[in-house]
Amino acid sequence: MTGLGSYLVILALAAVGTFVLTFPVKSLARRHGAVVVPDDDHIHLRATPTLGGSAMFVAFLLAMIVASRMSQFKQVFVGSSEPLGVVLAAALMFAVGMLDDLREVSPPAKMAGQVLAASVLYFFGVTMTLFKLPGNLGVLVPSPSILPLLTAVWVVGMANAINLIDGLDGLAAGIVAIGA
């Protein structure tokens, strides 16, 4: 399989995997009391299961494993540390999110986990190497010395942007799906 079809297979695997895994995760969360009750920050009307990130993370891992076996993506996985960096950083972000779902984690502790995940990305070669400017203004290529900081700012910024809209059920997941 080549071209767009390979990308669609991986997209479908991640999306369908997340959808299918959401049901057992939801059931397990309810059974073990991993729920958020309605309050001023959460506008849902009844206790809502947490740990939905588990379904997304497992589906992501499955999609990465399948992609690593496809010839279309061979050049991405062979001789590159970047996919491993993405998986390890995602695992760290998942762990921080899961811990926050199960018990309240202070904002500085969450940010420390996010910066650690960004650091893993940087050390495995995944960085913000350029920024396309709006319109026809061109491309901004930052100095290599500032790449770790830019990568951390991007990861922390994106994680917190999603976290801030997580009070409305489905909104964060929908925005992430659209962004993906």
Structure overview:
The protein is mostly helical and 180 residues long. It contains 7 helices and 4 strands, in the order αββααααββαα. It has a two-stranded antiparallel ribbon. Strands 3-4 form a two-stranded antiparallel sheet. Helix 1 packs antiparallel against helix 2 and helix 2 packs antiparallel against helix 4. The mean pLDDT is 88.
Q: Which key phrases capture this entry?
A:
single chain; 180 residues; mainly alpha; two-stranded antiparallel sheet
Summarize the structure.
This protein has 180 residues and is mainly alpha-helical. It contains seven helices and four strands, in the order H-E-E-H-H-H-H-E-E-H-H.
Task: Explain the layout of strands and helices.
Blueprint: H1 4-31, E1 35-36, E2 48-49, H2 52-69, H3 74-77, H4 82-102, H5 107-123, E3 131-132, E4 139-140, H6 147-164, H7 171-179
Antiparallel strand pairs: 1-2, 3-4
Which bin fits the share of residues in helices? 55-70%
What is the N-to-C order of secondary-structure elements (H for helix, E for strand)?
Answer: HEEHHHHEEHH
Gross morphology is: globular
Please state the CA-atom Rg, rounded to the nearest Å.
Answer: 18 Å
Terminal-residue CA separation: 22 Å
Number of strands: 4
Beta percentage is: under 5%
Alpha-beta classification: mainly alpha
Numbering strands along the chain, what is their spatial order in the largest sheet? 1-2
Q: What kind of oligomer do you see?
A: single chain
Q: Would you tell me the overall average pLDDT?
A: 88
Largest beta-sheet characterization: 2 strands, antiparallel
Please report the number of helical segments. Answer: 7
- Unreliable spans are none
